[in-house]
Amino acid sequence: MTRPVRLGVIGLGRAFTLLLPTFVKDPRIKLVAAADVIEAARTQFTADFGAPAYASIEQLCASPDVDAVYIATPHQLHAEHVCLAASYGKHILVEKPMAITLDECTRMIDAAREANVHLIIGPSHSFDLPYRRTREIIESGKFGDVRMITAQDFTDFLYRPRRPEELNTAEGGGVVHSQAAHQMDVVRLLGGGLVRSLRAYTGAWDPSRPTEGAYSALLSFENGAFCTATYSGYGHYDSSELLDWIGESGQHVDAADYGVARRLLRGVRSLCEEAKLKALRNYSGALSVRVLSRLAPIAHPNFGQVIVSCERADLRPTACGVAIYGDEERQFETVPVSDVPRSELIDELYAAVIGDREPLHSGEWARATTETCLAILESARTAKDCVMKYQLAV
Questions:
Q1: For residue 330, with 0-12 CB atoms within 10 Å meaning exposed, 13-18 middle and 19 or more buried, which class applies?
Q2: Which phi and psi (to 5°) does residue 286 adopt?
Q3: Phi and psi for 71 in degrees, rounded to 5?
Q4: What's the pLDDT score for residue 296?
Q5: In the chain, which residues have pLDDT < 50?
Q6: What's the rounded Cα separation, in Å, for the pair 174 and 181?
Q7: How many whole angstroms separate alpha carbon 216 and alpha carbon 35?
């Protein structure tokens, strides 16, 4: 390692809180600045890291001490903040979803290219090593071409505390913008990246949560493969049950906590109260998990059950590795777990910023994923197939 990436954080909310163990445990990252509208969060950051925290994003971007910025602001602000950071010559890591329109995605790509900076979108679950290893097995050709992908995930996403815009599809809310961004990234990685067309249905079944809480999509790929992808965030069945009770973050899920998300919301009387409840889990909140000594995951993060059917084997990435079901034998390839959670994200960021290496999860890659997510909404609305225009091969 030559030197760490000097990282400025834009948005000290829940996303930053979840990535904080990665940032503090990986020596390739040094947190040097932050920007947030909440004074308590800025004060906490300065106390924890001895670094400046600004009320203005522009002040952070103007700092010569910052190599790259991590943008974790609300979805509908990503395009504005990426373009601002690029104008100051900063490399950019922005949370998924990349943006909520394709025009915004293109603006972000153009801004980064014109400024000659790298743009990375993530983390999505396609960074996770079991999915990456599955892709390597596919590319080896040992089991022939991919023919079919089956992906499904059931969570309580819709009943976790939300801000009002997170329940408004037009502002980037609902499971399609937030969760399909993971699942579409994973299946595009495994299928080769080039989705030809998509047909989908969505479900919005709870008037108190007025946005999509579920979807099913059928994707066809240019290479002839096809994929069925289903997601439900309605908080009944939990896919962790199929994954040895390992949750999305790679931590153990206690089956006794069934229904806890809905119970937590039962006493909430308004959207304002709910937003305050969510804020308790942000970086400076009373229920924050910003403890720097947080335990490392016991397994890899995951996004439910995924099965890749090749010509001569089915491949099943899991929280611990890849299960391979061949013609006459079954085997399991373990994928070791790092002490640094989501270290794959830092691999890509460090290679881009320090090594000037083009990332896999570039703006163009993420725009293609966003295209499939928006196609889910469009296909469900029109009851028609959507043909893709912006797809990118792996």
A1: exposed
A2: -65, -25
A3: -100, 115
A4: 66
A5: 290-293
A6: 11
A7: 38
CB atoms within 10 A of CB 381: 10
Cα–Cα distance measured from residue 392 to residue 383, given in angstroms and rounded to the nearest whole number: 25
* Strand intervals (E) in the chain: 5-10, 29-35, 53-54, 68-71, 91-94, 119-121, 146-154, 195-203, 214-221, 226-232, 305-310, 313-317, 321-326, 330-334, 386-387
Residue 181: what residue type?
A: A
Report the helix count and the strand count for the chain, using DSSP H and E: 12, 15
CB 172 within 8 A of CB 80: no
The single-letter DSSP state of residue 254 is: -
Asked, as a colleague might, if the bond just before 210 is cis with ω within 30 of 0, I would say no
pLDDT of the residue at 270: 86
The CA distance from 128 to 246, in Å, is 14
Q: How far apart are CA 319 and CA 296, in angstroms?
A: 14
Give the CA distances from residue 300 to residues 249, 251, 339, 340, in Å, rounded to whole numbers and listed in that order: 7, 8, 11, 11
pTM above 0.90, yes or no: yes
Distance CA 86, CA 88 (A): 5
Taking alpha carbons only, the member of 315, 303, 301, 209 closest to residue 262 is 209
Rounded CA-CA distance 10/36 in Å is 6
For residues 248 and 226, give the distance between their C-alpha atoms in angstroms, rounded to a whole number. 25
pLDDT of residue 292: 44
Q: Which amino acid does the sequence have at 48?
A: D
DSSP 350-376: HHHHTT----SS-HHHHHHHHHHHHHH
